[in-house]
Amino acid sequence: MGEQTEYEPGDKAPNPGIYMEVGEASFHTEVNNPQKIRLEKGDTFPETTNKNRKWKKKEKARVH
């Protein structure tokens, strides 16, 4: 079983890093001007600008 890659507002960051907003189907939904945040392990994810968005670690948030 793999590590979770998408996070909801209120979830705790599993690792330090830069996270950014992605669309609900991040594989093919690109977000214009996504929020980017730096979190430390255990920090809480803030609200997204749209209820259908989630947080994903920046290096894993590339659109394919």
Automatic annotation (TrEMBL):
Record InterPro entries: YjzC
Comp. bias regions, Basic residues: 51-64
Pfam families (alphabetical): YjzC
Protein name per its UniProtKB record: YjzC protein
Stretches the record annotates as Disordered: 29-64
Annotated source species: Paenibacillus pini JCM 16418
Superkingdom of origin: Bacteria
